[in-house]
Structure formats: C-alpha cells, structure tokens
Amino acid sequence: FLKYNFDVTKGKIFIEWMKGATTNICYNLLDRNVNEKKLGDKVAFYWEGNEPGDSTKITYRELLHKVCQFANVLRSQGVKKGDRVSIYLPMILELVVAMLACARIGALHSVVFAGFSADSLCERILDCGCSLLITAAPAFYRGSSLKKCIVVKHLGREEIAVDGTCSKSPPLKRLCQEVQGSLQEGCKRKLLTPWNPAMDTWWHELTRGASTECEPEWCDAEDELFILYTSGSTGKPKGVLHTVGGYMIFAATSFKYVFDYQPEDVYWCTADIGWITGHSYLTYGPLANGATSVLFEGVPTYPDVSRMWSIIDKYKVTKFYTAPTAIRLLMKYGEEPVKKHSRKSLKVLGTVGEPINPEAWLWYYRVVGEERCPIVDTFWQTETGGHMLTPLPAATPMKPGSATFPFFGVVPAILSESGEELEGEAEGYLVFKQPWPGIMRTLYGKHQQFETIYFKKFPGYYVTGDGCRRDKDGYYWITGRIDDMLNVSGHLLSTAEVESALVEHAAVAEAAVVSHPHPLKGECLYCFVTLREGHEFTKNLTDELKKQGIREKIGPIATPDYIQHAPSLPKTRSGKITRRILRKIAKNDQDLGDISTLADPGIIKHLFNGRCDTNQ
C-alpha cells in the first residue's frame, strides 16, 4: 500500500502509494460523474471572460464529450502514454479540456502560465522534451471565438536549440492568420512565427468530426500524471512531477473537507491554472467531487474594483478561494466597492499562496465575509500537491494569520538548525515526517537534485524550506522561507512578522523585508515600503515606522536599519514578492540572475536608484 524512504543515508529517496493498482484520473473526474452519479446535466464550469457579459458554461456531459474528442485528436497526432505535451493557454475552457485529454490517454501535461515569455516556455519545453505544444493567439478579436485561434504545434518537426540556450527561435504564441473569415480586414496582423502547415494545425479543424467517445488508458497509480515548473533558489525552474493515484486521492479529499464541499455549492478559486492551485483546486479537486466552479479569465479590477464581488453575486458563489495579494490589493480601495454587492451566498472563504498578515485576514473576515464565514488559511506547496496545514470550516477555532493544524495524514515537525525536533512552543524549520498521497515523486530528470533540495539537510524528513512557529495552543504559523529568515544579533526574526507590523501603519500599503550584512549584528533589517495614495515618504514617516511600527510591536531588536520607498515591489506573475531580487538591491548587487518571471522588470531600475546609503 505504501512504501517509501525519506532518509538519504539509507539509499535512494522514493515514495510508492498503491503501486500496482490501476485507474484513470479523467475517468474518475468525468465518466463516473456522468454515468454513475448522474451528474451529466450539472454545470462543471461557469466561464467568465474579462469583459462583463462575456460568459458561457459547460456541463459534465459536454465536458466529457469535448475531452474525448481532443483525446482522440491527440492519439491521431501520434501522442501516446508517457509523452509530454506543453499547454500554453489563457484561462479558457479549452485549457481544462487539453489537460484532461492528456490524462485520459496517459500523456503528461506540462501547463505553462500564459503570462510567461517565449523564452521561459522554450526552457520548459526543452527540459521535459515535449512533443506537442497547444497554444493560442495572444489577442482577442471582435467577432471571433478564441477557441478558433488555438494552435496545435508538433515540436518534433521543428528545429529547436539542443544546447539548452533557446538560441534559435522558440515556439511562440502566434496570431491567427484567419478565423473562418470572421476577422475584418483591418484586424489582420502578421504572425510572430511563420505558419508552417507541416507542424501547425488549428484546434477547431482537428476536433471537427472527432468522435465523442474515447476509451481511457488505464494507468498504474504510480504512473506520471503531470509536470509543473516552480521557482528554484538558483533561478532555474524545477519540474515537479506528480503521479496519478496519490495526487488524485489527495486533491479530491482535501478539496472535499477543507472547503466543506456540498453538492449545491458554487465554488470559485481565482488562481490561474498555470499554477498548482489551479491544478489541484480549480481542476482536479473540484471535478473529482462533481462540483460546479467558476473559471475567470479577467483581472479583479476591471472594469472596476468591485468585479470580484459582482461575480460572486452573479453565480451565487458559496466557497471563495483567493490569494492574500488580491485581498491586500482590494483593501486599498476600501469597503464601499465590496458592500455595494450582497455576497449573501458566501459560506467559506479561503486564502492561498503566502502567509496572510492579520490585518488583511481581519478585513477579509469582517468586510468580505461579514464575520459569518470561516476562513481557511491554507499552507501547501507545488511539491505537496495539496493542503498540508489548514483549518477545517466551523471545526477549527481560527487565529488570524495562522494555518492552524495539519490536514489528515500529515505529520509536521519543527526542527532546530542542528536537526533536533522541538516540542511545545517552538520556532525553526518546518518539515514533514512521513509521506502523504499527493507528495511529488521527483524533479523531472533530476532525481539527485530532488534528493539534495528536499531531503539532504535533515535526513529522514521532507524539508519544506519554510520557517514555522508553533504557539502554546499547538497552532502553526508560517514565518516565511528559510532564506527570508533574519538572524539579528543571534535572534531569529521572521520577515512576515516585521512586514505585518509595517503595514499596520495607515500610510503603508505593502512592505517587504530582507536581510543586509551588518558588521556588529551579523544581519540587519532592510525594508521596502509601498505607500497608500495621498501619503508622502518623509523622514518623519520612517521614524514613525521604526518606533511605532516595529519597536513597539516586536521589540528594539527588530528595529530596521534601513527603510526604502518602493513605488511597487518586484513580483512574479502569480503575485509573489521576489525577495531574492530585493536582497540583491539592498546589497547593490547588479547580478540579478533570471528575472524573466517578473511581472514588471522595469521596477528594478527605480529600486536601485532609490537605494538607501548603506555605507554610512
């Protein structure tokens, strides 16, 4: 049933869960819901485009038919079990169809966030050797359907750089040459990459007439399901590999219990499917439970800042799952945009992606949920496949900012620097003592790196790379990445705690804290703050932040040596602050490494120009 080794000193790291059992995840998500549970006419997804009024829906039966059609297309194009398929699409229903079609025939999908550059896409394609790319036009056209702009590209028929440098023209998103004559002459634009009929085919042409029946490929529980790339500390993305059986069970079970799923629910996870949250809690987890979900392609502030709350009312969303970054963004606009919509359907609120500061948690609870909706503040990783630390709605007493307790079957521990397990109240390295079904099995093609990153530092444990504090009541508090921990005069400080103290000030919208070398303390605090509209960055303000914001809330040991004004902070396209780059800026180190994943690389120059003088 379960075999594993977490100790590098005893041999190769491996995890096997129900090896030898056979299943197909697409069959469980669609066929069983349609044929056994009689949910064929139930809505699987309400799709909402960026433009209000641009919407559609798809039932479980319709989704099954479309998935079978495209699975037959993939087979006709030579894709077979074990092949890798790269998917580079916006948040449209065809993205879900493509993923499940791959799963149905035993091929691995590698979804790449559509906001990444062509070079980033190329790097991922080369790393896992994808044979096919499914992509789309990067623009919308009046009078045309986006699905008519989807391209299926045979990568094996294209010359790609073999030295890993992506020096030759990589596969790019392309504009449509024509969309069944629906484009007006003035809308036609030149292709970014020349159309090649030997390798490029239109989705709508391939699926036209394809059968809506497709026998699933039966897979071993330990067969590979998908590869998803996540950031590495070296700047090189890592291909996290998940397998069929364990991932399916963990995504399905955690979705059911963490969100207290009920058959009448309408669930909305705002994550992009290009990230693990979109895989586990927008695609696989909800569909495994026969849930109805909202799939939103737009941005939360268009056409106005109340867009998210209007969508909640439109679809009567009961369970809502979003990121602290989005909450803090909408907090800036006050309560009025929220309160102009009823939100009466809401029953459970969730957060994901990073620790949420208590101020944002309280605003989410009081303003959005009107103090009647429990908040599930979830901690997990791309590597874990699903929730690791999380409250259960109405069952776990909440503490603002705490991920509370482990999910079923998860055994956490807190270790000291020397690897000693700490009992009771403690702070240190968060690790897990035994495997759970959804744990990653390796880094694709890099098993030695997998062992080094996750198991070498503390043999016998899975190392999350996160710091954690356990309070006297046994609640777990994520304190930030270990490389974001600050050791000031022998005292371990968390960036999250200092940042939370800074944003409590009325003038501060967002803050990020990194370490800076100090001749006496070893490290000192270097803070970046983004101000709310109407506030000015002055010496008086920095003095207030140091005294009232830090000294009084945490203690003198946490007083920052430097506070820099930041017009905005460098973030990935998923909204995470890139502290690796902020540390470089604080040290005036121009060697930034890979910055291709930044949403706005232009902010770096402004931050370097505004550096504090650290030579005084």
Automatic annotation (TrEMBL):
One of its GO terms (molecular function) is propionate-CoA ligase activity. It comes from the Eukaryota. Residues 37-442 form the AMP-dependent synthetase/ligase domain. The gene is ACSS2. Pfam families: AMP-binding, AMP-binding_C. It catalyses: propanoate + ATP + CoA = propanoyl-CoA + AMP + diphosphate; acetate + ATP + CoA = acetyl-CoA + AMP + diphosphate. One of its GO terms (cellular component) is cytoplasm. Monomer. Interacts with TFEB. Interacts with the 'Thr-172' phosphorylated form of PRKAA2. Interacts with CREBBP. Signal peptide: none annotated. It comes from Cyanistes caeruleus. CDD domains: ACS (cd05966). Gene3D superfamilies: 3.30.300.30, N-terminal domain of ligase-like. The keyword Nucleotide-binding applies. This is Acetyl-coenzyme A synthetase. The lineage of its organism: Eukaryota, Metazoa, Chordata, Craniata, Vertebrata. InterPro entries: Ac_CoA_lig, AMP-bd_C, AMP-bd_C_sf, AMP-binding_CS, AMP-dep_synth/lig_dom, ANL_N_sf. It is an enzyme of class 6 (ligase). The chain crosses the membrane at residues 85-107. Belongs to the ATP-dependent AMP-binding enzyme family. Keywords: ATP-binding, Ligase, Lipid metabolism, Membrane, Nucleotide-binding, Transmembrane, Transmembrane helix. NCBIfam families: Ac_CoA_lig_AcsA (TIGR02188), PRK00174.1 (NF001208). Residues 497-576 form the AMP-binding enzyme C-terminal domain. Its EC number is 6.2.1.1. GO terms for biological process: acetyl-CoA biosynthetic process from acetate; lipid metabolic process.
